[in-house]
Design a protein that fits this description.
Layout lengths: L10 H12 L1 H4 L15 H16 L3 E7 L5 H14 L3 E5 L11 H11 L10 H8 L7 H16 L4 E5 L7 H13 L7 E8 L7 H9 L6 E6 L4 H10 L7 H15 L3 H13 L4 H5 L18 H11 L4 H10 L8 H8 L3 H13 L3 E3 L4 E3 L2 H10 L3 H15 L5 H14 L6
Length: 434
């Protein structure tokens, strides 16, 4: 501006340039262990999310609620929103509660206060009694008093600069903290205070704090903002991500085959897609095998020739560990073969009744391990079944279950059972007659 226009940049532009130059906007949100791929697909949804952030930066509190299945990209979108807030000059405070925090009142609010709100410019203008109440969040005197104190703190900070608050995995947050955030944002509703609250949570309300359900109902009504749900990628969206993250795959036919294979394995789950592609990036010797799909004399459901990346294994098994023993047993029973689930066969393998298996499958559907297509249950993503069969079952027990299934299927003559049995024979390497 000085050399070409003879103008001096204003303070806001100079501050923005310094934030970009110093990379403070990145350090203020999250250090990334590896570079994330570019955001693809969901263009309308991303535009709406970023519009909420921009509206909040211009003035007037906004709330963005993002829900989705595990691995749908909730945290990634939260980070992207945080970076836009930081580039806009906002002071950021973030919390990511653990499951144990749900039973610890005010734990999420304490994390936000210690994460930057109590030290932010403008906080010194708050009444000392308000700061004392917030500083003593371990033993709050009254929930309404805490919400009013939080609103006063946010208003004072917002007089100096915008405020960005993020709560990731809010389904683990304690109820009082979520309630205080809702009430505080509601008190600021008619003010010009630039405050943005970004909350992510699993989709569905089973086991959710009731305060999170109330907050969800308030977004877009008493709380200006938007509530967005991240669906799995469509095949075309998955293709964009695969092709943009696989520079090693150049031939058009190979690129098409890779995209279809990855989508089939992951059922469009962005986290599984990214971790699988990173595994391929490190397993260059096996790329040709991955691109040979299906393998000779094999089907499209043949397993991958590479090990599932450790990050994906840990994430999937972490979700399995949250299930009760009977549900895990059913999940093991459905993970020994193809993606289609035979309820009677699973009942025979697990020793449970058909109704008990259906009840557990309904729970697994709510936890996003299986899906229902209107006629039958199927594994949500083949990668999930592969991890469960390898990590969740000792090799001998897995083989034993498959052999028992072979014996049970031997008495059936319908084409689908015969096909299932042939696929199990291929998996076990058994020489029994199909």
């Amino acid at each position: 501006m000085a050399s070409q226009l003879g103008e001096r940049p204003g303070r806001a532009l100079s501050d923005l340039a310094e934030r970009v130059r110093s990379m403070r906007w990145r350090r203020s949100t999250a250090l990334r262990a590896v570079e994330e791929p570019a955001l693809v697909g969901r263009e309308a949804l991303y535009r709406e999310a970023f519009a909420v952030v921009e509206a909040g930066l211009r003035g007037g509190p906004r709330t963005l609620l993002v829900t989705g299945d595990p691995g749908a990209g909730r945290t990634r979108l939260l980070v992207e929103c945080g970076e836009r807030l930081a580039l806009g000059g906002a002071v950021l405070a973030s919390a990511r509660p653990l499951e144990s925090d749900r039973e610890s009142p005010w734990s999420t609010l304490r994390a936000l206060l210690r994460g930057g709100l109590l030290r932010a410019p403008g906080s010194t203008a708050v009444d000392p009694g308000v700061l004392a109440a917030l500083g003593d969040a371990a033993t709050p005197r009254d929930a309404a008093e805490m919400a009013t104190a939080l609103a006063a703190l946010l208003r004072a900070i917002a007089d100096e600069q915008p405020v960005g608050i993020s709560v990731d995995d809010a389904h683990f947050a304690d109820g009082p903290s979520l309630g205080a955030l809702e009430v505080a944002l509601g008190e600021l509703r008619r003010s010009p205070s630039p405050v943005v609250l970004v909350v992510t949570a699993l989709h569905g309300w089973d086991g959710m704090p009731r305060e999170l359900v109330r907050l969800s109902a308030a977004v877009g009504r008493s709380l200006p903002g938007s509530a967005l749900r991240l669906e799995p990628f469509t095949e075309e969206e998955a293709r964009l991500l695969v092709l943009g993250s696989s520079p090693w795959c150049q031939a058009e036919a190979d690129r098409d085959r890779l995209a279809r294979r990855v989508f089939f394995e992951t059922a469009g789950n962005p986290f599984l897609i990214v971790t699988l592609l990173r595994g391929l990036e490190q397993a260059s010797a096996l790329r040709d095998e991955v691109l040979t799909w299906p393998p000779p004399r094999g089907t499209i459901e043949a397993p991958l020739p590479i090990a599932v990346p450790s990050l994906a294994r840990r994430a999937i098994m972490g979700r399995v560990a949250e299930l009760d023993r009977d549900t895990i047993r059913v999940l093991q029973g459905v993970s020994i073969g193809v993606s289609r689930i035979d309820v009677e066969l699973v009942a025979a393998l697990t020793g449970a009744s058909r109704d008990a298996v259906l009840e557990r499958l309904a729970l697994l559907e709510r936890r996003h391990f299986v899906t229902f297509d209107g006629e039958r249950y199927t594994i949500a993503a083949p990668l999930v079944a592969e991890v469960v069969s390898i990590e969740g079952l000792p090799p001998g027990e897995c083989r034993s279950l498959r052999i028992r299934a072979l014996d049970l299927l031997a008495t059936r003559q319908d084409p689908e059972s015969r096909l299932f049995r042939a696929q199990l024979l291929a998996l076990t390497g058994s020489h029994r007659a199909p």
